[in-house]
Amino acid sequence: MSVIVLAGMIGAGKTSYTSLIAERMGTQAFYESVDYNPVLDKFYEEPKKWAFSLQIYFLNSRFRSIKDALVHDNNVLDRSIYEDALFTRINHLQGNISAIDMDIYEDLLANMMEELEGMPKKGPDLLIYLHGSFETILERIQQRGREFEQVEVGDERYQYFKLLWEKYQGWYDAYDASPKISLSIDEFDIKHSLEDQNRVMAIIEEKLAEIREVVPC
C-alpha cells in the first residue's frame, strides 16, 4: 500500500489521474476543492489583493490533507503541500505578495513541514509530476470551462500561467521529499484511451515495485 501525490500545472489533469489511480489500486482519493474555495475567483479578479489570502487558504487545506493521508497507507492526493510554495513564489515574483508576507508564509510552511516529521509516514511513497506543452495546458484550461481561469494571450492571467509553467520543471528537478516520476500529458490521453490508462498504470506500478525493493513495506 502506498501514499501517492500528484503534482503539475493547473489544467494538467491531476484529478483525472487521481481518480484512475485510486480506482485501479483500490485507494482513497483526496481531491482539492475548487468549487467551495471562497478566495480563488477573487484572486483571479484582483491578484494583488487576494494572493496572500489564497496561498494561506491552500496551505492550510493541503496541510490538513497530507496529515490525513500520511496517517494511513493507500491514499492518492491530487495536489499536495510539497508544491505549495511554488505558487506563492510566483505571486511574489509578480508583485502580488510582498516580501514581508513571503517571509511569514515561508516561516509557517517550515513549521508545518516540521510537524510532518512526526507523522507515521515522513512523506509520500511516490510523487507523480504531470507535464506538457504550454499550449496543451491552455487548451485543457479552456476545455474545463471555469470562467475565472480563462485567459487572453498576453493578459495578466496568461502571464501568471506562463511563469508558473516555466518554473515547474525546476521545482520538479529540486523535489526530494520522496521518489518521483514524470508523465507527459502530451503523450498520454487517459480520458479517452484505455490503452493509455493501462500504460500509465504500468509505469506507476513498476516504479512502486522498484521503491518497495529498495525500502521494504
Structure write-up:
The structure is a single chain. The protein contains eight helices and five strands; from the N terminus they run E-H-E-H-H-E-H-H-E-H-H-E-H. By secondary structure, it is α/β, with parallel strands linked by helices. The protein has a single domain (3-214), classed as P-loop containing nucleotide triphosphate hydrolases (Rossmann fold). Helix 4 crosses helix 7 (156-174). It has helices at residues 14-25, 40-45, 47-71, 84-93, 99-116, 134-144, 156-174, 194-214, and strands spanning 3-8, 28-30, 75-77, 126-131, 180-184. The protein is 56% helix and 11% strand. The mean pLDDT is 91. It is globular. It has a five-stranded parallel beta sheet, sandwiched between helices.
